[in-house]
TrEMBL record:
Entry superkingdom: Bacteria
One record GO biological process: respiratory electron transport chain
Protein name, entry field: Hydroxyacid dehydrogenase
Gene3D superfamilies (alphabetical): 3.30.465.10, 3.30.70.2190, 3.30.70.2740, Uridine Diphospho-n-acetylenolpyruvylglucosamine Reductase, domain 2, Vanillyl-alcohol Oxidase, Chain A, domain 4
Recorded GO MF terms: catalytic activity; FAD binding
Keywords, sorted A to Z: FAD, Flavoprotein
Cofactors (names): FAD
InterPro entries: FAD-bd_oxidored_4_C, FAD-bd_PCMH, FAD-bd_PCMH-like_sf, FAD-bd_PCMH_sub1, FAD-bd_PCMH_sub2, FAD-linked_Oxase-like_C, FAD-oxidored/transferase_4, Oxid_FAD_bind_N
Family according to the record: Belongs to the FAD-binding oxidoreductase/transferase type 4 family.
């Protein structure tokens, strides 16, 4: 890279805003899954939106591609540079300002580099609740959540990150700043620019700030673990609970028996709260701003399905410790997979009404084409998002892993699209699904996306090689 550009970047962000040492760059050039590793001449760490804009102007003048990066916790390689050594990483990890909390308007305005957990804490300090909840919430940033339209465990009630954002501040590829930090729930004055940048994975501009929705703080919770004979029964139970509990139903997670066995075997202290064998399990949580009455609502809501044989068994947590143990069992699946083998992961979404049929078809197809491979099927059934993973042995050779991954992806994703689903529900496209996108998106959709990309980023400098 031109040393003059580095000198000018240092003038904008200061010497302490550049990471030039190769060893110090290591956490930036490799994703946390260690699937993608690249090189960069410099990591630039601006302190505010003005500096981000100045950096983008310099990079555009120099024709230098830019890879925006938040917490670098993504699942699809969307924040990793390539191995050319020509791409600048622009990290927002110094932009950590909570700009405003408006408890009356139920909004919080933050820098894009603020950790998700810090947003949750700031909302809690104001007597409010920010509902986005992810396993990486202690290390992922709001900018990254917005760039990938992250989901999590509370989408059923509150929606994805897109649904939680009212306004954005974005630095465009030419260094101009779109200031759309409006805390409005109604604004019918033209195209939805906010929605355009959310989920764009840094390919159209850099999100530097956001106005996010807050909610009344939940003071009451009721948590239950249920055993069921089939995915059909789990989906039927979801419908029954939605009718009985309404918006208090915050989370509805499903996992197969194999998932529960895997976690019990590989995660210390994790144990199923139910006796006996059950083909599928569900974790259910109600929450409300009113502290009392949720357990009294949940118990009869489960009693009917139990008496009818729709579900086989249920346990309701009687204290916070039991509730945390149930969530530990659900959240331990990812850790257990890493210890047990190499997972070929599928982050898919389907209409809830078609989940059970898909699982039956996919289980049969995987067993027919890849016999003997265990299926790790779990996910956020309340919003139709499955993590339908297939576990390969830890010692599988790399070339065989690559070959099996391609075959499994084709097998699973063809069925997903046939059932009207999506091959990426909450993890984004990044590098992982980029080439597959062309197979499953229509020509019209791809053309529209490319037209938008060319209009906003004609020099193709924003996060090249990702999404498109």
């Amino acid at each position: 890279m031109d040393s003059e550009l580095i000198r000018r970047l240092a003038h904008v962000v200061g010497d302490d805003g550049l990471v030039l040492d190769e060893a110090a760059q290591a956490p930036y050039v490799e994703d946390w899954l260690r699937k993608w590793r690249g090189r960069t001449p410099v990591v630039v760490r601006p302190r505010n939106t003005t500096e981000v804009a100045a950096v983008m102007r310099l990079c555009r003048q120099n024709g230098t591609p830019v890879v925006p990066q938040g917490g670098n916790t993504g699942m699809s390689g969307g924040a990793a540079p390539d191995d050319s050594g020509a791409q600048v990483i622009l990290s927002l990890n110094r932009m950590k300002r909570i700009r405003e909390v408006d408890a009356v308007n139920n909004t919080i305005t933050v820098d894009a580099g603020v950790l998700l957990a810090d947003v949750q804490d700031a909302a809690r300090d104001a007597g409010r609740h920010f509902p986005l909840s992810l396993g990486a919430e202690g290390s992922c940033t709001i900018g990254g959540n917005l760039a990938t339209n992250a989901g999590g465990t509370a989408v059923l009630r509150y929606g994805n990150t897109r649904d939680l954002a009212l306004g954005l501040e974005v630095v465009l590829p030419d260094g101009r700043v779109w200031s759309g930090l409006r805390g409005l729930r109604k604004d019918n004055t033209g195209y939805d620019l906010r929605g355009l940048f959310i989920g764009s994975e840094g390919t159209l501009g850099i999100i530097t700030g956001a106005v996010l929705k807050l909610y009344p703080r939940p003071l009451g919770r009721a948590t239950a673990w249920v055993g069921a004979p089939s995915p059909d029964a789990v989906v039927s139970l979801l419908t029954r609970l939605q009718a009985r509990c309404g918006e208090r139903l915050t989370a509805f997670e499903m996992m197969s028996a194999y998932c529960v066995t895997l976690v019990s075997r590989h995660v210390s202290g994790a144990a199923c709260p139910l006796a006996g064998a059950h083909a599928y399990h569900a974790l259910i949580e109600l929450s409300d701003a009113v502290p009392e009455g949720l357990a009294e609502l949940l118990e009869p809501a489960l009693a009917g399905p139990l008496e009818e044989g729709l579900i086989a068994d249920a346990a309701i947590a009687t204290n916070e410790s039991q509730a945390k143990a149930m969530w530990r069992l659900r959240e331990g699946i990812s850790q257990a997979q890493v210890r047990a083998g190499k997972a070929v992961k599928h982050d898919i979404a389907l209409p809830i009404s078609r989940l059970a049929a898909f699982i039956k078809e996919a289980d049969a197809a995987v067993e027919r084409e890849f016999p003997g491979l265990p299926i790790v099927n779990f996910g956020h059934v309340g919003d139709g998002n499955l993590h339908y993973n297939v576990l390969l042995p830890l010692d599988v050779p790399h070339e065989e892993y690559v070959q099996l991954t391609a075959g499994l992806n084709r097998c699973v994703h063809d069925l997903v699209v046939q059932r009207g689903g999506s091959i990426s529900a909450e993890h984004g496209v990044g590098q992982l699904r980029r080439d597959e996108l062309r197979r499953y998106k229509s020509t019209v959709e791809m053309d529209l996306m490319l037209m938008i990309k060319r209009a906003l980023d004609p020099d193709q400098l924003m996060n090249p090689g990702k999404l498109l």
